[in-house]
Amino acid sequence: MQAEIIAIGSELLLGTTVDTNSAYLARQLARAGVELVRKSSVGDDTERIATMVSEALARADLVICTGGLGPTLDDVTREGVALAMERPLEFHQTLLDQIEARFTAMGRTMSPSNRRQAYVPTGARIVENPRGTAPAFIVEDDRGTVIVLPGVPYEMRYLFENAVMPYLRDERGITDAILVKTIHATGLGESVIGEMIADLMAQTNPSVGISAKQARYEIRITAHGASQAEAEAMLATTEATIRERLKQHVIGDEPLPATVARLLKEQQLTLALYETSTLAPIFRALSAVNGGTECISGVLIHPLDRAANEDAAAILSQTGAFGIVDRWRADLGLAFQVADTSDQSGLTAVSVTLVTPKGNRQVTRNYDLRQTEGWEFVATLGLDLIRRYLVGEAA
């Protein structure tokens, strides 16, 4: 089965509301073995909704719509879907009674406009909504199935888990499984990684893709199997191949900052930081993960009073690392120093030093520090230096 998601609401197109519903549904459909082929958004317009639903049915067996089931005049999802399915709206007194009963239970008086929520396309299967006033519904025809859910996230999630999933399993016979595994890597460029696993990226099942951010890479494996066990086996085989090819550049199942924090805690080691930018990119990266600061003994932020050339930056980086280890009696000291850039390339040399009980490690790289993202690359460089030491990689 292939599916499409249509998120309905003009607020989604204006950017005032973030569409979290589609992300949730995508994850749930994958777990159920339903292949999602497209996600889209449309405003509160009857004709446009009808067009999008009709176009989606031409491509997919299952279309899930969210939003636009409220009582106001701009809630026109019912009308749009009815138009697409060529079925007039039909009033249901039982639905209106349920809506009114909910208002009574809340100690409120139902507005006359709520009557609109008691209409669904003729012949639709009604999905009662015990969490809100907007009933959902399912419409089937020769082209496929359209499931319409409210846009309020907690209502949508409840109805999907308690009504839609049983429908897909029990009546549509969904038994497949789609599993996704993400492997984190660093230390190589995206193009290099792409070349090393090009054959895996060319296959369709399991499929493999790469996304890059801050010199860290997420390699996603997606396996579609006739059962959970089959999909797991396909994932495991592909993951093993990727790990073998990328070797020490694979961080693991978790992002780099989380890996460093976990390894420091497991090995009961403390870390001191010396950062020469008030942005403190390394401390900020560790602070963003659970337990990331528990092993930090201290942080010294000390921008240079005057510019240093690349050689001086390397010396100052090393001196800073030794100084913070001594100051806070830390097991590890990490420092970076930024050199002066006099050419027009816009790149700045950054020297990073890690002082450890087993020796010192130093590396220098060039980054564009004119934008905030450049400092995130510095964080990646420093954290990966720590990670490689903690996993026993030779200097």
UniProtKB/TrEMBL annotation:
Q: Which HAMAP family match?
A: CinA_B
The Swiss-Prot or TrEMBL record describes its family as follows:
Belongs to the CinA family.
* Protein name as annotated: CinA-like protein
InterPro entries named in the record: CinA, CinA_KH, Competence-induced_CinA, MoaB/Mog-like_dom_sf, MoaB/Mog_dom
Residue span, MoaB/Mog domain: 4-171
Native organism:
Candidatus Chloroploca asiatica
CDD domains assigned to the protein according to its UniProt record, in alphabetical order: cinA
**SUPFAM superfamilies linked:** Molybdenum cofactor biosynthesis proteins
